[in-house]
Amino acid sequence: MRMKKAWETILPPMDSPANIKIRNSIITALEIDEWAFRESEIQLIMNLRLKLMRNLLESRESKYKKKVQDRFARLEQRLGKRRDDQVKIIQQNLKRDLRKLCTKYRDKQRPRSKFDIIERYADSKSELYALQTHSGEHETLQGSLSKGFAEREDVTPSPLPMIGGSKLMKHKPKSVDICIRETRWTGEKLKQLHSDLKAIRMKVKSADTIPKLMKRAFKLPALPSEEECRDKKIRTIELQQLRNNQSMQEDRLCEILNSLEGGTVCGTLDFLSKELVRLEDERRAHASALLAERERCMREAAEAGRRQLERNRRREFDEMFKQIVKVNQDSVEAYLEDVINEGIDWMNKFPNRKKQNP
């Protein structure tokens, strides 16, 4: 507005149509320049706003991707830990089963002492020459006594509970009938087995002796001690607590940064929106001022035209009056001359009458 007022003081006055046209063209050029500057400012503000919004969206997307990646990493870590625990449990079960199998096959492969009455009587360290009171009743003696007592009294012995012996009841094995087609012990095989066992008992080497299986040395794996397990569990708990604390601190820091960034972006957007509203108000005010100025110029031009027409009309009226006055002046002069001439004639005639009348 100040620039416009300054230009209005410099512009030529509105006293002719040419000056009015020049003035209007200069004012229009100034308005176009000013509006171009305003449009460039508004465009700059809008570009800055779009840039800030794009940066905000990119930051939100990157934070969301990072959050998803952290979640997948935690899930992978949890699943990996669960997998390791399951693998450890499977390994422990495998070690226990291997130890059981080793114990079972070691007991099976252990050579059993065969009962030989001649060797037992020949060996002075056998159980026959030792006291049998510490292991319960004597088998041979009890058997002979019970048999003789049964022959004398003709009664069947009933099993009575022993006072000093074991109280465990031995279960009789169930009879299992095996199908002939499903078993591998046929008559020929049983005969061959009987001949082999007989040859072994008589200490005679048979031709079809089966070689003994060699004992396989199983190496039992070393189990971790209780102190190592406890230390490992304590370290695992400490690492888990440390990771939880770090994740909580990172979440708090992200929340603080997000709040600060949100406040800054909110303030910037608020300022830009206020500036945009102010520019729009200035634009509307400027447009209304331009309309008022244009109306004023049109009124002034109309008034100048009316003044010009009034001047021309006055000039015409003056000319007409002058002509009318000039005609009247000529007629007055002629009338006065006529009157004077008549007066002169009358005065000339008056003495003559006086002379005639005495």
TrEMBL record:
Superkingdom of origin: Eukaryota
Keyword Metal-binding: no
A Pfam family recorded for this sequence: CFAP91
Region (Disordered) residue spans: 143-164
Coiled coil start-end: 269-312
Keywords from the UniProt entry: Cell projection, Coiled coil, Cytoplasm, Cytoskeleton
Keyword hit for Ribonucleoprotein: no
Gene Ontology terms: cellular component: axoneme
Domain CFAP91 stretches: 1-100
Subcellular location: Cytoplasm, Cytoskeleton, Cilium axoneme
Record family assignment: Belongs to the CFAP91 family.
Protein name, entry field: Cilia- and flagella-associated protein 91
